[in-house]
């Protein structure tokens, strides 16, 4: 399966290529104006030069020579002027085909300069330089065939070289300006694309962050759900009040878990949109929500002891308080999963400038658990470690010297 070569829209941006666009680009109103102006200038010069050659004072004419040559020169000049309408498509071909006229034609002089200008602007520099060199070589021959009636040979040569040099300088200026404009436009397009990429990456990171938050919440709620369901399974003869209470907790936990799951799926499926279409994010937990979290676990039958030695809980930064909440939540979830029935102790301590320390400890389980183990993804502690690391803190977890499982973290709390 063959594929067509990609041709740049502006080949003059690539000095080493001779490839031209294979598709015809429609002229803009500005192009029509410029092409019409070039045609009128070239045609006007051809008519003016022929008129001077047959005027009452031919000794002052710029078109000196036999009458038959002047008539042929007029036809050639008008023909090359008309061919300027094709210069955008075949500039090099027209410039090469009209090169012989540079030896003797006065009427085609302006048209030849316009073709030379077009090649220098729109085609690779080596081609333009070659055409300029050929024009310079034809200058002495032209001056001998068409001598000026007033100026000497070297003066005529100097004026001709001056005109060619002015056209070359103007063409190089236009070329450099177009390259600069195209480079700035390409840089702006690249910057816009990079900005869109950064926005997309930031949106994806935000979705990932929210998904991790929801993972912590879901793991906590589902562990509570499993704990109550396990109690009902192993105590079918429990009093009706306890069964109703446990069923109510199961229903509430299932409803909350379903709501959290719906939110995380909505976040992951949401398409990029404006701020007016985005749903507001629910308030994030802080250090003040830890007692409610502990009360929820106690209601599920978990024995939890809390020692709160935080100097000024209201002054804890929201980001630090949210991290402490997630650490306590993960510690309680792990205790319910791996050490059901064990006493969980939580210690909070800290002050501004010293940082905030949190420690969750529970006895290491002995033997196999009687109830089925609550399944988990095994990434909870990994997420907590990443959270603490991003906050600039430290995290330790594992079995300590006393045989208990210990989850401890320290988070920076700058002094106000």
From TrEMBL:
GO CC terms of this entry: membrane
Keyword Transport: no
Catalytic activity, reaction form: ATP + protein L-histidine = ADP + protein N-phospho-L-histidine
Segments traversing the membrane: 32-50, 92-120, 151-173
Signal transduction histidine kinase subgroup 3 dimerisation and phosphoacceptor domain residues: 206-270
GO MF terms held by the record: ATP binding; phosphorelay sensor kinase activity; protein dimerization activity
Top-level taxon of the source organism: Bacteria
Database matches in SUPFAM superfamilies: ATPase domain of HSP90 chaperone/DNA topoisomerase II/histidine kinase (SSF55874)
EC nos: 2.7.13.3
Annotated keywords: ATP-binding, Kinase, Membrane, Nucleotide-binding, Phosphoprotein, Transferase, Transmembrane, Transmembrane helix, Two-component regulatory system
Name this protein carries in UniProt: histidine kinase
Native species: Micromonospora halophytica
